[in-house]
Every structure is written in C-alpha cells, then in structure tokens.
Amino acid sequence: MSNYRRWVGVLLACALAEALAAVVGVLATGISYRTITDSFMLPNWVIGVSCAACGALIAWHRPRNLLGWFLLGAGIAQTGTAAVTPWLIQALRNGEPAHALSTAYSAAWPLSISLFIPLAVLYFPTGTLPGRPWRLAVLLAVVNGPFQVMLFSAAPDPLPTVPGLGTRDRAASWLSIPPLATATTLQTASDVALGLSLLAGVAALVVRYRRGTEKARRQLLWLLLAATVAVVVIVVSRIAGPIEDSGFPIVLLTMVALIPIAMTIAVLRYQLLDIRLVWSRTVTYLLLTTAVAATYLGLVEVVDRLVRPRLSVSGAVLATLVVAVFFNPVRVRLQRLVDRLFYGDRGNPVRAASSVAAQLAGASQPADVLPAVCQALRLPYAALTDEAGVIRGEHGTRPTLLEAIPLLQAGERVGELQIGIRPGESHLANADRVVLELMAAPLGVALRAQALSDAVQRSRREIVAAREEERRRLRRDLHDRLGPALTGIGFRADAVVNLADDQVRSLGTEIRRTVDGAITDVRRLINQLHPSALDDVGLVEAVRRHAALLDRRGDGSPLRVVVRADEVPPELPAAVEVTAYRIVTEALTNVARHSRAGEAEVRISGGPGELRLSIADDGPAVNGRWVPGVGLTSMRERVAELGGTMLAEPTPAGGRVHMCLPLEADR
C-alpha cells in the first residue's frame, strides 16, 4: 500500500509542478487573457488540475481501482500542455526555435483526450470492465492514442486558434511525420476510432446501469449529472453573438472539470447527497428552461410575423406575457413527471396505497408486497416485523438508517414496517411518511390475519404431533405390557392342555385359540397406531422394506422401486416420520394399482428445517389423462396438517408427487 501511495504522491507532484509552471509562464511572458483563451490554455489547466487531484484521491484510497491512475494520467497530460503553452507562444512570436516546446505541446493533451479519458469512462466506477468484449474498446483506445499524438505532431501549425504568432517554420515537432499532415483518410479513421472509443464508454455505462445494483446506479447518476450540466452549459455558450466573440465559450470548457469531480464523489462518497433528488431538480429545470426559451423564441417569431403589423404591442412583450401565464402550470406538471420517475407515486398517496393493496389481495403472506412498497416509492429497503420484533420478510439491501412505521389493528400494535432511508437523506421525508401510513392500514390487517393463521396452523401441528406421540406411547404400552401378558396367558393355556384331562384340555384349547386371536388383534392395532418398522429401523429402511414387497403387481407384472436417501436427519419428529411413511406407502400403492409403470423412484432428503419427499414413476397416464384420486386427497390432508407443501403433477414420462414437511412440527 505504501508503494502505491508513494507513486500517487510522485504523479500528483508532477501535475502540480506543471500547473505551477503554467502560472509562472503566464506571469513571465505577459500573454493576454484573450491569448490564454484562444490557445485553450485555461481549460487545459483547469481540467488537468481537476483530473490530477481527483485521480490522486481515488488512487490514494482505492489503489487497485484503475480509474484513479487513468485520471492522474489525464491530469499530467493536460497540465503538461498548459505548462508549455505560454513559452511556445512567446517563442513563436519572437521567431525562436520551438521544436521541443511544440513536441511537448502536441504530444501531451491528445493522450488525455484519446487514451486516458476513454479508458476512465470504460473502467468507471469499479476499475474493471463490464465484460470481456469491452477489451476491444480498450485495445482501440490504446492503439489510437499514440496515433492521435502522431497526427497532431504532424500538423504544421500547433496553435492555429491564436492569431498573430508569425512564422511557424521553427515550430515543427520532433515527432512530425509530414505525410500524415495531408493523409485525410488516416485522420478521418483516427477520429472515427476516437468517437467509437467514447461511444463504447457511454455504452459501458448504460450496461452497468441496467445490470447494476442500487449503489452502482447512484454512482453512475453522479457522473451523468456532471456530464449533463457540462454539456448543456457548453452548448448554450455556443449561441452566436457577443458571447461567442468574447471567447467565453472556451472558458466554459472548464465545466468539463466537473466530470472527474463527479467520478471521485461517486467512488469515494456516493452517499454524500441524495443524487436522485438532485437529478430530479436538475432535469426539471433544464427541461423547463429549454421549454421556456423555445416557447419564448417561437412566440416572438410568430408575433413578429403575424400579429405585430396589426398591433402596436411588440412581439417580445406578448411572448413574455404568454410565457409568464403558462410558466408555473408547466413547471408544476413537469416537476410531477420527474418526481414520479425518481420517487414513484409519492405525490399521489392514494394511488400508491391502492397499488400495494391490490398486490396484498393476491399475496400468500404480507411480506410478499414489500417489493411493491419499494417500487411505489423507489425505496432501497423495506422489512416487515411482527409484534415480537421478528422479521417476517424483507426486500432490498438493508442500509444503516432505518425508520419504522407502526402497524395497528383495532388500536393494537401488531408489528412495524421498517423503511430504509435513501442514501443522501438523513430522515424519511414527510411525503413518504404520508404514503407509508396509508399503506400501513391494510398491512396491519394482513399481518394480524397472518398471525392468527399461523397460530391456528401451529395449534394444528401441535395437535398432530401430540396425537402421534400418544399413539407411539399406546403402541409401546400395548407392545411391552399387553402383548407379553397375552403371550404368558397363552403359554399357561398350553400347560393346562398338556396336564389336564380331556374335558379340561378342550377348555384350555379354547382359551389358547382366544388368546391367539387377541394377540393378532393387538399386533394389528399396534401397527395401525405406529408402524413398528419405524421404531425398529427408521424411516429410510422402513420405506425400503415396504418397496421390496411391491416387486410385482396383482396381475403378476414386475415393478422396480428404487429408494434414494440423501442427508436425512437421524432423528425425526414422530408426526413427520409417520406422515412421511404413510405418504410414501400410499403413493407406491397408487403406482402399483393404478399405473402401468415399470419403475418408480422414491427420493428422501433433508433440507434446512424440512424433510423433502419425491415419488416419481414412468407409467403413462390412463386413457391419456392423469387424474388425481382419493389417495392424493388423503396425502394433501396429511401434509396440510403439518403445515407442509405438496405438488402432484403429470410428467412427460409418468407422474410425480413432491412434498416438503417442516421438521418443527412437534414444537
């Protein structure tokens, strides 16, 4: 890091030394202000110092961002041209040899315009290209930059815009290649290449904006704002008349210095202001000023041609009156349009609240409307919390500053709508708060309804879990107590049969027969209460054993069942385990009875807080249709009891049943 900063200090010192040399040159040579503007020395100096200072700041704090180094290069090139300009002008006026000065002048600023600036735009703001294809634009700039230097060095007159410098024969650059001065085709090709490099940079910015995050878009808006202001001011300054003759348009080229300043803010302090608010006001008044000026000039022209011959009032006065009458209504309407672009429906609270309410009507849970809330007001982040402060859903990137809108239902607080403050703002604007408070009413109702629904579902899961646990306890009691007792009675009946006479033996045989029937009934009841295989070998192995029994259907046709398990939790809640087993066995029974499948696959896998089941077969649909039956209805009911999800659908090869069961069902 220290080596990087050492180089930053060296390069910045070079640029500042060149800037100081330019000031000293002006004072020493005594050139006039008009000469300074005609030679473009002032914009070169201002733009060069701006690029160097801004590039140094970026390279100092973000040394791996190539943008800072490109701006430093542009600054050194621009200030280098400004440094030699006064001495070159003096040498030309005195007829002195100026080959070295002309070489430095012609070789410096073209590198800034054709190489460093296009590269800075291509690499803004991250210091990397938006993709591999943009390397072609970099290659074009790298090749065309030195060629532009050769073209400007070949020009016989390095300062054609400054009059009265006398002969230029002694100002030929050492890099001059005379044939290039008349090679118009090569000059045109190089200019086209320069234009393509700049257009590629603009296209890269567009791509970054479309693909970028909220942060990237705000960074790009800083650059776009500076470029827009600079271009508008420069274009307006080109109006023909006294302002053009004064050389003031050349002075206004210094507005280009806003671009590196905006780049630096975008990279280091993009949250300095709410750039969208700045853009809103800037775009509004630029459009408004343009519209007023165009309307004024048009009305003056129309009145002068049509009305003035018949009225004594001048066209300028009438045009002024018309503009004055319509100015404010147009301003208000235009401001609304621009504000809607940057702040959504903040100016129309009813429409914003209605759009969110419409989304809420079709949402499965209240948190699903958070994207609509952010979109309605162009907010960076929104979250919904319940009365316990638990986040029920969120959208966007959580910023540092948050404000909460309470959600009330029947006067009782049921949660909060947390809103992220836009970058550049310190608090939530009153206009935003009004809209959000309107949205809070239906959100509060929906959140309370969701809480009640969750409570009902939670109670339902607890009932199912308690039922299965009770069944498991009953099975254990029957198996461990009643079963052995009946078996013992059976053994004693056998002993009576073996030791007694014929009459008692027949009675003992009858007792034995009754006990055997009771044992059979108890075993059947035990299995109905809770499948014994689940306690013996677990869910996966129990499914495999059941699948092994389905190797053939009732008609004798073969059926191959494959069971695959992946990361299944070793201990499952009783309700989840029984439900999963019942569903799998029911699904496989349906495959065996109602399909012509040759193979079925069962997948059991664990996920974050859930158990996933999938049963698929390759059997074609009966009569060309896949019709769900009673078995699927029973499966859906079992899944719904645990608050899980289920999907049953036909596939190109057969049918598939997929479900997810939450593992917290017994809590």
The SSE string, one letter per element, is HHHHHHHHHHHHHHHHEEEEHHHEHEEHEE
Total helical segments: 21
How many separate structural domains?
Answer: 4
Radius of gyration: 42 Å
Provide the residue-averaged pLDDT: 76
Residue share in helix: 55-70%
Low-confidence stretches: 240-246, 310-315
Strand tally is: 9
- Reading side by side through the largest sheet, how are the strands ordered? 5-6-7-9-8
Sheet having the most strands: 5 strands, mixed
So what's the CATH class of the largest domain? Mainly Alpha
CATH architectural group of the largest domain: Up-down Bundle
Gross morphology: elongated
Topology of this structure?
Blueprint: H1 2-29, H2 33-38, H3 41-61, H4 66-94, H5 99-123, H6 135-154, H7 178-181, H8 184-211, H9 214-237, H10 242-245, H11 248-251, H12 258-268, H13 275-307, H14 315-343, H15 349-361, H16 370-377, E1 381-386, E2 391-396, E3 402-409, E4 412-420, H17 430-499, H18 502-529, H19 532-548, E5 560-566, H20 574-594, E6 599-607, E7 610-617, H21 630-641, E8 645-650, E9 655-662
Parallel strand pairs: 5-6
Antiparallel strand pairs: 1-2, 1-4, 3-4, 6-7, 7-9, 8-9
